[in-house]
Amino acid sequence: MKSLFNLSFRYKIPLWGGVLIITATLAVSTALIVQSYDDLRSDLVSSSASLGRTLAKTLFSAMIQEEVWQAFAIIRAPLHEQSDDNLVQPEMILALDQHERVFVSSHPKSVPMLTDIRRIDDEFARLAEMIVAKPGPDAPIIDLAGARRFYAAVPVAEEGARLGTLVIVYSKEVFLPRFRAGAWRGAGIGLLVLTVLLPINWYWGQRTAAPLIALASSAGDVARGALLAPPPDIYAYDDELGRLFEAFGVMVKSLHEKTLLEEEMIRSERLAAIGRLSAGIAHEINNPLGGMLVALANFKRRYEDDERAGKTVAILERGLTQIRDTVSAMLVDAKVKGRDFAPHDLEDIRLLLSGEAHQEAVEIDIECGLTEPVALPATLVRQILLNLLLNAVHASPASTKVNCSVQFVEGQLRIKTTNAGNAIAAGLMDHLFEPFVSGNEEGHGLGLWVTYQIVTQLGGQISAESRDGLTQFRVMLPVGESNA
């Protein structure tokens, strides 16, 4: 039984619906059959009572005058007048005297006159006992257990004088086949109803179960970490199930946003930790590095006439200077003082990058939406633009264009750069703003790292997107009071 309840709704709903339909159809068919039987019996009672009272009233005068032929004609008349198709046509009619002997019979050959009905057969003997025990004025249908016939007994009496009993005999062999025919008709109607309703129930069950199955599948996907909502058109109605789909979609969307936020927080915490570590290492390196450069400068002045020593010192000096520049790039201080970022800074950036863009055969298109300075350090914002545009120029194929848009919207400075070229690999995207991570073999990966540090320390956000052959960086910096 438990395995039945564990079935999928795809099968459970049609099965339970089919059971209910079959049960209801059987109940209705049974009720119709019982009603048919009751109607036949009621018609039989009504017909026999009417016929019995009419014949009994007519027989009274014939029996009191002992007119046998007249009585015979009276009881034979109904058998000749009624057609064979009449359901309540009697098989035999008997007129009994006060001692349950046959006064006259509609079938004198099989039941002769003056025959005690107790001697005909057991059924008539039991009928005689019932007539003696209950000589009532009515004509109830007498259905003896195991009998082959129905009987209606009507007293032949007038003004308190009772001459005998009129017995109307009905054969069950005629009654029951007609009842069975009605029962078969009821059963046929039930089968027709089942033939129509069961396929409709199966179709309706499948349609009802389909959205539930889709919802269960989506819930399983969510449990496995795949935040996928069911297709919005799978159930387009605004009932309880439709509202459940809507709530599930909102929940999946919230979980997706929460997951993205958690990933961003983890990435930000990782980058912040790397920044703190890098800054600490840079400070520790800069102290002995400065001493080494001073010592080399003193050594160079002392042995400036020694050509071999000068060459060696020059090599060491260039290496240490490169180390110093790399370490200095990892030290970002967003608290520098200076003027506000102004529209003319964009022209300076365009001029500074023109040589690099010409060398790479790339055009730079800068859209300026500023009409006045904004309260952000010009040096740091210029550094952000230079780093992003340089990366875009180096990543762009020849004869393409790098687009840059700088807008002041809703209290934020919004920077967007777009360039064509190969998409950034998915594995690289999660570590894009970490130091020494670069998609270019010639780059050292500090440009985006420095950009991220500046944006973070200014309280802004930076994001990257790469698809359909385009790479786009977005920077949003909240504008505060003037730093000038």
What does this protein structure show overall?
This protein is α+β, with helices and mostly antiparallel strands and 484 residues long. It folds into three domains: 2-180, Beta-Lactamase; 240-329; 340-478, Histidine kinase-like ATPase, C-terminal domain (Heat Shock Protein 90), CATH 3.30.565.10. It is 57% helix and 17% strand. It contains eleven helices and twelve strands. The strands form three sheets. Strands 2-1-5-4-3 form a five-stranded antiparallel sheet. Helix 2 (9-64) runs antiparallel to helix 5 and helix 8 (344-359) packs parallel to helix 9. The longest helix is centred in the middle third of the chain and has 63 residues, at 240-302. It is rod-shaped. The mean pLDDT is 81.
Structure summary, number of beta strands: 12
Strand order of the largest sheet: 2-1-5-4-3
Please name the fourth-level CATH homologous superfamily of the largest domain. PAS domain
Query: Can you count the helices?
Result: 11
Cα-based radius of gyration, to the nearest Å: 55 Å
CATH architecture of the largest domain: 2-Layer Sandwich
The N- and C-terminal alpha carbons lie at a distance of: 81 Å
Categorize the overall geometry: rod-shaped
